[in-house]
Amino acid sequence: MARDNIYAAIDVGTTKVCTIVAQVDSLGEVQVLGVGKAPSSGLSKGVVVNIDDTMESVRESVDKAERISGVPVRSAFVGIAGKHLSSLNNRGVVAIAREDRLVHPRDVKRALESAYSVDHSISTEVLHVIPRGYVLDGQKGIKDPVGMHGFRLDVECHIVLGASTAIQNLVKAVQGLGVNIRGLVAEPLASAEAVLTDDERDMGVILVDMGGGTTGIAVYNEGTIWHTASLPVGGGHFTNDVAVGMRVNSAVAEEMKMRYGRADVAGVDSQEQIDVHDSQTGRRSVSRKELCEIIKERAIELFRLVDTDVKKACPNFTPAAGLVLTGGMANLPGLDTIAREALRLPVRVGKPMGVAGLAETIDNPAYSASLGLLLWGINQNEGQNWTARALQIPAQLPQKVGTMVKNLFSW
Predict the structure, then answer these.
(1) How many CB atoms lie within 10 A of CB 250?
(2) Mean pLDDT of successive 10-residue stretches along the chain, which has 411 residues
(3) What are the contacts of 96-103 at 24+ separation with CB within 8 A?
(4) According to the model, what pLDDT value does residue 382 have?
(5) What's the CATH number where 100 sits?
């Protein structure tokens, strides 16, 4: 089996680690060969807090994927999440000084270098620089200016930043197992790669990826990314609320949430009781409607946080395509209904698209980020136009701006 068409992705989440191995066949289709899933330890809200525990979780996930696929995982695209993620949009401007006024690749490089030269904290590193579009002598909507004529070239870029320590700890946990990191990808962008359609990106859409410890946000409009963020609230907070409200331990609360929980309470019988057994309070019956009310309140609060974040970053933005809900928590019944009521937008639950093989295993919103990491890497390696894709910057190798940009292009 040729190694050059084999890809792997490792999604290191707060509650689970998922490794996926896939192959691109002769027709360009992505065939999933193996999926390895393991409980996650050593992370809090998407950030590594214990490297040894994280390494063991990643090792277990990788070993399972290798056994199923029969392919050793030597390198992988790795997802990164956490509230430390932030983003900004910046513009670079350069003059075309040659007599023929013809735009060369080096002019685009200079424009990107200008856009990338933004002030940010020494404690942060750049994860992505994504060209959103070019303007040549005032003409907007240009996707690739190379070969065109003009006097002034502008480029609009979306830049994603992450905390240096969070990045370095994740890199250490994965590379410590002998797995080379081909690229670090912000998980909201990865999930968007797997669940959003081109029409949704063009019309304007909000992606909400709800995981165990964090909720990722990606806003797209006019076919490109406008905003990336990560909120420190996830499925674990729903579980904690249930544990406190119903006076049970976390394990029982998680089971109650998964078996009986709903985000909407309409249709839940107020007389229905649930038998629970807790080591401290013993066996007793509790109201299912009360359980669902607790979950509903947390869901409303979360979607208000999403609304606040998007309005602050993208004022006057109207997502004509509505909101796409994905991630493991998207499986919670009624969550899309609450999102629709809270945000007054059309809402759909997004499942991964664009892959084949092991369909019964991966046909679930919980695998959106994992599969998105694969698609992100494949799209970059299979000849996608560089002007429309993220420019990967190796976060574990901080360099000066000029050197970094120079290394991005080998013309």
Answers:
(1) 12
(2) 79 94 88 93 92 96 96 95 93 90 91 78 85 91 90 93 94 95 95 95 97 95 94 95 93 94 90 85 88 96 97 94 96 96 96 80 91 90 40 36 34 28
(3) 96/150, 96/151, 96/152, 96/153, 100/149, 101/149, 101/150, 101/151, 102/147, 102/148, 102/149, 103/136, 103/145, 103/146, 103/147, 103/148, 103/149, 103/150, 103/153
(4) 54
(5) 3.30.1490.110
Cα distance between residue 149 and residue 100, in whole Å: 8
Domain hosting residue 215, numbered range: 198-352
Q: Are residues 222 and 342 in the same domain?
A: yes
pLDDT of 280 reads 72
Q: Note the pLDDT of residue 356.
A: 79
CA 45, CA 166: separation in Å to the nearest integer? 11
pLDDT score recorded for residue 409: 34
230 and 347 assigned to the same domain = yes
Q: Would you say residue 253 lies in a domain?
A: yes
Q: How far apart are CA 149 and CA 168, in angstroms?
A: 43
- Look at residue 141 in the predicted model and tell me its pLDDT: 84
Same domain, 154 and 236: no
DSSP annotation of 365: G
List, in order, residues 6 or more apart from 317 with CB less than 8 Å away: 204, 219, 221, 226, 310, 311
Residues 203 and 158 in one domain: no
Residue 261 and residue 213 share a domain: yes
Strand 47-48 versus strand 43-44 pairing type: antiparallel
Number of independent structural domains in the chain? 2
145 and 279: one domain?
no
- Ramachandran category for residue 147: left, alpha or beta (phi over 0 → left; psi -120 to 50 → alpha): left
Global confidence as pTM: 0.88
| 133 lies in some domain | yes
Residue-by-residue DSSP string for 31-76: EEEEEEEEE--SEETTEES-HHHHHHHHHHHHHHHHHHH-----EE
Q: Is residue 147 located within the same domain as residue 265?
A: no
